[in-house]
Amino acid sequence: MKPRSKILIIAGSDSSGGAGIQADIKTVTALGSYAMTAITAVTSQNTTGVKSIVAIDPKEILNQIIFTSNDINPDAIKIGMLHSSKVIEIVIKSLDKIKVKKIILDPVMVAKGGAKLIDNKAIKLLKNELIKRVTLITPNIPEAEILTKTKIKSKEDMIFAANKLLEVGAKNVLIKGGHLKSKTVQDIFVTNSDIKIFNSYRYKTKNTHGTGCTLSSAIATFVSCGKPIKKSCELGIKYVNSGIKTNPSYGKGHGPINHLNTIFIDRKFKLWKI
After folding, report:
1. What is the CATH number of the domain that holds 223?
2. Among this protein's residues, is 80 annotated catalytic?
């Protein structure tokens, strides 16, 4: 099968394979597209935690993005872990040069334990400069709280936070509701003219490592193939949920989902369970 589109992934490496660049490549490939990468950091981690993080020189990140894109022009870009203000500045510079219109930003800012992964200067730059350059931003609740300086305890709070992100230049916002204590998971898509709540079954499992990376890469893939942004969010959420349901139970901690899950995509990009 010939790949349907080309996706450039700008993110960190996860040696365990459950998240980061590894999850992104698996997702893009499983959904029928071609993945290219610009690695921002190399992590040594497994399902129980992170041992070390080695940053990639910002100039080399720029080289990866520009040199790759000059040869194989991406149809869409997915952005994940940007660990410093210097890296964010370089990514902004590169985006302005290559001028790809479809960009999905997963603002990786908070570890599973709750600790912030980037400093306040980087957060400010992401909020004031990077957000307005992307098609969609996909924060989880802790990330949305940091970006909007609000507390989120309900779906109404999620919508309020999403509107605050629209006010600073976001075009489309998908706030992921997995951190709320509710019977179902509610992910909320908000634009200046639309609100859509996606309700999903909450699976009782600790194996959800890399769901945010996977979702943003799935959305980028669907968007790159011509699907509208809201429909791409819906399809991406369904893909992730199927991966959670069929997770392989690897590792002693928070294991990965199943990127080769029981879904295939037909030519009209509808999701069907096998």
Report:
1. 3.40.1190.20
2. no
